[in-house]
Known about the structure:
single chain, alpha+beta, 11-stranded mixed sheet, 9-stranded antiparallel sheet, globular, transcription regulation, HD, homeobox
Amino acid sequence: MAMAVAQQRESSSGSISKHLDAGKYVRYTTEQVEALERVYAECPKPSSLRRQQLIRECPILSNIEPRQIKVWFQNRRCREKQRKEASRLQTVNRKLTAMNKLLMEENDRLQKQVSQLVCENGYMRQQLQAASATTDGSCESVVTTPQHSLRDTNNPAGLLSIAAETLAEFLSKATGTAVDWVQMPGMKPGPDSVGIFAISQSCSGVAARACGLVSLEPTKIAEILKDRPSWFRDCRSLEVFTMFPAGNGGTIELVYTQIYAPTTLAPARDFWTLRYTTTLDNGSLVVCERSLSGSGAGPSAAAAPQFVRAEMLPSGYLIRPCDGGGSIIHIVDHLNLEAWSVPEVLRPLYESSKVVAQKMTIAALRYVRQIAQETSGEVVYGLGRQPAVLRTFSQRLSRGFNDAINGFNDDGWSLMSCDGAEDVIIAVNSSKNVGTISNPVNSISLLGGILCAKASMLLQNVPPVVLIRFLREHRSEWADFNVDAYAAASLKASSFAFPGMRPTRFTGSQIIMPLGHTIEHEELLEVIRLEGHSLAQEDAFISRDAHLLQICSGVDENAVGACSELVFAPIDEMFPDDAPLLPSGFRMIPLESKIGQDKLTTQRTLDLTSSLEVGTVTNNSTRDASTCYNTRSVLTIAFQFPFENNLQDNVANMARQYVRSVISSVQRVAMAISPSGISPAAGPKLSPGSPEALTLAHWICQSYRQVFYHLGADLLRSDSAGSESVLKQLWHHQDAILCCSLKSLPFFIFANQAGLDMLETTLVALQDITLDKIFDDSGRKALCTDFTKVMQQGFAYLPSGICQSTMGRHVSYEQAIAWKVLAADENTVHCLAFTFVNWSFV
Length: 842
């Protein structure tokens, strides 16, 4: 019995020892580690079969158990994970240290600014108490830039003096208190923010400032930022005229810059500046710039009349290297954009520091950070495209769209004679090849040229973000897919290029395929596939899909002052990196900020079948105005079409009609998505001094009922209940209903959908149409005869006749009825209403 117990103990002890030997620590030789590392590089987590195969194939590993090799790989993966985490934490620590330093400097600057304001306040108090003392203007926190005569710019000594002054003034803005900076609305700094952004509060011109941390060396950052056309989308060209070294190792350059106009309603801008690059004693790199006096400087005399000379006050970039790599950037943009040269309604666009911050200052910092992330490999794009290629596509789309909007003479653009209606501008470029402006190598020759139809309109109470997002996601609501197919086919160098394009039927559906986006998703690059099928039986099984390359930007509702864009161009299905582009699209720029508005819910239903209820959201018209979106925006539309010489007039007519139809569709969409639910073109009032849409609709129907009470006639169904239903039925009434003012030259102030269709116009252009324009001579005579009858008895029947739309097309109608529209007091005649029964185009 004792012997059996002893044998059992020995057997158990041997089993335990064998188990411990299998899992004990093994000291690997250098050759064994190298063999294992080679396998780890190929497969960090090999299977059991792979480990056994490794032992068989590598004799130096034959004395190691499979379990020990498994443990080695587990430890190796753990060490790799710890190494990556340690590296990440070190990087985060360096960034936080640099950001902490930046915040401390910003805090010191703010403390200095507070001290300065306290001193200025005390000084002003003393001046006010002393009645005999005069007010000293030195207390104002306004930066003034002395103009330098052309005499100073003709010699190096004068330029060196200007450069030294520019450097001192720029540094006082970047790190000092020369400008009263306030935090940019909606850009609160935080751990995930790009940087710290501020705008000027009380200084001459418009100014913005940005501070941020970027993982690039100062020289690389300066090289990127000096190439302004690569990151500033509104920069048309930048040409260095003269460059010579400064005495302290820096360089001085004389630079001429042209800036696109954002809309067709304003001229472009240009700058004639001195740019000074130098290194400070602390190792910081500075690039500062300011305007030189003299409006005649510039390379292109032909294009000079299309530009307004603007002023750049001391601006630039301060780039300081950080310990452990990377740099801290201070960016200052200070401009005087000469707002006097644009219509008064657009002046907020040129007097807003928020717009300069979004377009230039923030864009510069974002672009540098984008390049830094692409360089480090943090950004991965789709369809196998390199980041630089996709970035070039975005720049070419934006540049081509800006070229179309501005239509510069030195690019070959000229205006066509219009048909009398000024709502759509037609420009022709007969000397232009597709792609020549962006890249001459990427061009294909056309037998005729390129035609651009463009227009701008003012919208009110329409959030730009919501409208552009809707246009992107619901293309079928405004676009004609056959026009897209025409543009795509005309760019193909094939035997069936236009005008003999194969007949195609489009399903109306689109597929959005993302290509890439910027680091904060403020810009999206994507390919749009428009599904189509051939109508020819022999090609029934051949796909006739059309493809568009598209960028969508400014769809962040929290970005104050940012414009929203949707720009697209037809491309081939397998578009190469140098594919020619002919961009078209929309640009919507806010002119005013949101006033007392809570955050707008942009996830509302955007289906027109459910949201085009004209009075749906106006039921709360008496609600507090602080909950409404109260802003104005300018919407610019530009579409480009290739053409052959013998088809120029036909393409021009097609383009004009197409853009007008797009305007009408956009107007309808804008009305549907407007939070106030009223006409976005006319704002809360249909015309100056007129009532809101709901009230006017009620007056129209009530006056009609009172005038024709003896006949028991009613304009709408008697079961209509509520103001919302009245406006909705009036809007969708089958007959054209129009209202005109009682002025010496009556003009239209309201039209329902049928009325807009009959006149072939939009709510934007409606108030520019006078009553006499739509009638021929006989119609005007009949109207003059019956006008007295209308004013005396309240109504009149007009016989059948012919009227004319804004596009010159004749419209026949069986009967027209005119009646007075009385205001709520039933004593005041507000306007005249007309209804055209059973109208149709002749």
